[in-house]
């Protein structure tokens, strides 16, 4: 079902592009300077109408229908998928593997204005050259300290809105789309995601509803001899939030909320009591070097869940939009169907 929906969207885009090309070719032969001026005036008018939005403690006046948007962080992929009027983005390589060919082509064609994961590298001169009428910074508010806000706000209105927890992509994407006036486009996959999650929740309620799950982060940059233990609503486990499955436990330090760094020496204590272990892998099933090292360890191989074959490898495990989360749910379904715990 997911593939079909993605194909339909691509087909619709293609038809729209062909239609636009046809209209352009037709009007080009009979256009005048006044027609061109009228089009420019229309675009300018769309961008000049404004509305006020409140984000945290900030109140920002933004265009009602922005025509030239710069997006950074978690705002990049939702706005690409929603066909927003993007004129530039910050690098966002963490989700390149989640992009279909069309979205990847769009991403690669856009000017890159900052290095991946570091808004302090923002190129203000290059940003000004793309003439944005709205800048959406999909990064935590604390990142304001890393940028020159006076210089940024002199170019265009700026909205700072980023996650404080991995599961917040569900609401953030919709807010980014609202700022960009493309909510209808972005909402295309929300209903499909919710329906798929309900389907899987019902499918595994009887066989897995009483099982306990635990997660491991595959790309959290831990030092050798350590791993990042995920509890509920963490980087990969948040994709199970809507499936009604149990992820018990909390970090030793409550402020860590959804996960913590643990020594491999404590692996048996930390993950030895769960029935099922989940972790992310690449779209082709490959494991990150840090995860591969953990899996190769004798301590991992001795875990009851591993010996029982109750391990779920989640492709697209860093999904942060409804469209790519659909792909993750497909992978979760494939993994849950195949292992012994689902058949008991």
Give the amount of beta strand, in percent. 15-25%
User: What is the topology, as strand order, of the major beta sheet?
Assistant: 9-8-7-10-11
CATH class of the largest domain: Alpha Beta
Share of helical residues = 40-55%
In round numbers, the mean pLDDT is 87
The Rg value, from CA coordinates, equals 23 Å
| Secondary structure tally: strands | 11
Individual helix count: 14
Per the CATH scheme, the topology name of the largest domain is Rossmann fold
Give a concise summary.
The chain is an alpha/beta fold. It is 41% helix and 16% strand. The protein folds into two domains: 50-181, 3-Layer(aba) Sandwich (Rossmann fold), CATH 3.40.50.1980; 190-343, Rossmann fold (3-Layer(aba) Sandwich), CATH 3.40.50.
Structure, described:
This protein has 344 residues and is an alpha/beta fold. It folds into 2 domains: 50-181, Rossmann fold (3-Layer(aba) Sandwich), CATH 3.40.50.1980; 190-343, Rossmann fold (3-Layer(aba) Sandwich). The protein is built from 14 helices and 11 strands. The chain has helices at 2-28, 33-48, 76-81, 101-109, 124-129, 149-155, 169-179, 183-186, 190-208, 267-271, 289-295, 298-301, 304-307, 322-338, and strands at 50-55, 58-63, 69-73, 86-89, 134-138, 158-160, 213-216, 226-230, 259-263, 276-281, 311-315. The strands form 3 sheets. Strands 9-8-7-10-11 form a 5-stranded mixed beta sheet. A 4-stranded parallel beta sheet has the order 4-3-5-6. Helix 9 (190-208) packs parallel to helix 14. It is elongated and about 60 Å long. It starts with a helix and ends in a 6-residue tail after the last helix. The model is unreliable at 1-45 (pLDDT under 50).
């Amino acid at each position: 079902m997911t593939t079909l929906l993605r194909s339909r969207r691509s087909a619709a885009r293609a038809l729209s592009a062909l239609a636009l090309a046809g209209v352009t070719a037709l009007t080009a032969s009979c256009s005048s300077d006044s027609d061109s001026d009228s089009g420019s005036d229309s675009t300018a008018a769309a961008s000049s109408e404004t509305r006020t939005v409140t984000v945290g403690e900030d109140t920002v006046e933004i265009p009602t229908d922005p025509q030239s948007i710069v997006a950074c962080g978690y705002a990049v992929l939702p706005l690409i998928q929603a066909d927003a009027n993007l004129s530039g983005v910050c690098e966002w390589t963490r989700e390149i593997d989640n992009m279909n060919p069309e979205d990847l082509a769009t991403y690669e064609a856009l000017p890159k204005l900052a290095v991946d994961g570091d808004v302090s590298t923002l190129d203000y001169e290059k940003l000004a050259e793309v003439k944005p009428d709205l800048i959406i910074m999909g990064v935590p508010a604390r990142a304001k300290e890393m940028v020159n806000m006076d210089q940024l706000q002199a170019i265009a209105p700026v909205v700072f809105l980023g996650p404080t927890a991995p599961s917040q992509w569900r609401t953030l994407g919709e807010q980014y789309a609202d700022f960009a006036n493309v909510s209808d486009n972005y909402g295309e996959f929300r209903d499909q995601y919710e329906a798929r999650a309900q389907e899987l929740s019902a499918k595994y309620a009887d066989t897995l509803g009483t099982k306990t799950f635990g997660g491991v982060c595959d790309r959290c940059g831990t030092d050798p001899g350590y791993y990042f233990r995920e509890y509920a609503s963490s980087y990969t486990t948040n994709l199970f939030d809507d499936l009604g499955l149990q992820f018990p436990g909390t970090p030793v330090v409550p402020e860590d909320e959804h996960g913590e760094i643990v020594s491999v020496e404590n692996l048996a204590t930390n993950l030895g009591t769960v029935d099922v272990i989940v972790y992310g892998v690449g779209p082709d099933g490959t494991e990150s070097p840090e995860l591969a090292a953990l899996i190769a360890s004798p301590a991992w191989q001795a875990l009851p869940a591993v010996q029982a074959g109750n391990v779920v490898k989640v492709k697209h495990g860093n999904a942060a939009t409804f469209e790519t989360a659909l792909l993750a749910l497909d992978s979760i379904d494939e993994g849950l169907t195949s292992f012994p715990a689902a058949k008991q």
